Amino acid sequence: MADNPYSKNDDNKTIVFLNTLFSKQKNAHNVNPYPSANERIRDIKALKKSLIKHQQALIIAMKNDFGHRSEDDAKFGDILTSVLAANYTIKKIKRWMKPSKRHVNLLFQPAKAEVQYQPLGVVGIITPWNYPIFLSLGPLITALAAGNHAIIKMSEYTPATNEVMKKIIAQVFYEEKVSLITGGAEVAAKFSALAFDHIVFTGSTTVGRKVMASAALNLTPVTLELGGKSPVIIDEDIDINLAVQRFIFAKTLNAGQTCVAPDYILCPEGKRQELLDSLKSTFNKMYPKIANNPDYTSIINQAQFDRLQNLLTDAQNKGAKLHPLSEEQMKKTVTAKTKKIPLTVISHTSNDMLVMQEEIFGPLLPIVTYKRLSDAIDYINARSKPLALYIMSFDKTRQNYILQHTKAGGVCINEAAFHVAQDDIPFGGVGDSGMGQYHGKEGFLTLSKAKAVYSKGRVNFGSLIFPPYNKKIHHLIYKFFIK
User: What does 214-252 look like in DSSP terms, one character per residue?
Assistant: First the structure.
């Protein structure tokens, strides 16, 4: 497929439509600025029903967009996670919407204070290509739970999926409530320049900076879900085979094209060969073959395939050893045709290699050895803060030591990536891996305005403190409250 199937003429038409659509959504929100809990639940239920109805069409579309995408990768990574998010949100909306009662100081009594959670308005959602369903519908479900309208900008690299998604959205919503657009980089630039009430962007750090700069012109708040190099620390106390079993699925799911996929391994010195052997054995049990294996996903397009090949070439030229883990001997012509790259371990790495500087976003796995646990922590802290950190250890003291001496968007202990699927904990990055958070209650709060409301009844003693000052009441207030 072409890397960008949308023509300049297509993009120009989309931009004209987008400006009109945005105005329509703003006006529609003003007509119904605070939809009821039942309205919100109805919308999310209808969205879930439409998603389930079209799931097979989505799976086929994603296969077409990727060249080949595993049906189970699609179900696990996109369909199941979206349905679980919808189910959880439906159960919690009424509780989240309840005003939160707050304390009023004795000095200001009788009165009451509370926080009401008001919809922001129109939310812009910019979706990447790697999980096009979950990373569009996940933020949308949160936006709907908070009572907002939304426009979704899909990736230009998933045109077949985009067409099915258009049908799903159109069957459930009027375009004034939720709409989905497509297009290339020019459309994305115009999209992020609109005066949304909030933008949720998932993608690369480089593009995230551009989105934030554009949003700043309108003082639009942003939630940036970016990426980075998420490390796995293998502690010396854990069995290597067990450690591999706990993180390898997160690396092979979607052929490593996952923002929270393990990016590199920090392995105790002296255990590198054992780790290599375990990785190869485990990988071949999971994927006995690659080229014609329906369980193994292709790289999305030629540009991404070439990028990954360049990382391997650069590493090898700078002294690294490459270890393709598949026992199937794939010819270069087959690899290029299928755009399938077996999980490839990279040993003897150095900091000047591109694979140790850039987010990998594919089935390449560098190994870095360390002597002491503190060395592994220093290695992580010397680099940009990762989106995820994975700790393979059963030693509580070491677990806590790592947690207290590192920063990351999220952490899994003796697991990898599945924290993203936990609906009751927030998901977000820190530093170069992002800002803000959503999922669950934190997502509802992110896409709501927490409006402070302080109210008085008929009884009011406020006039007692009016000027002229230096009355006895002022002296009493200062005496009892300034201490």
Answer: HHHTTT--EEEE-----EEEE-TTS-HHHHHHHHHHHHH
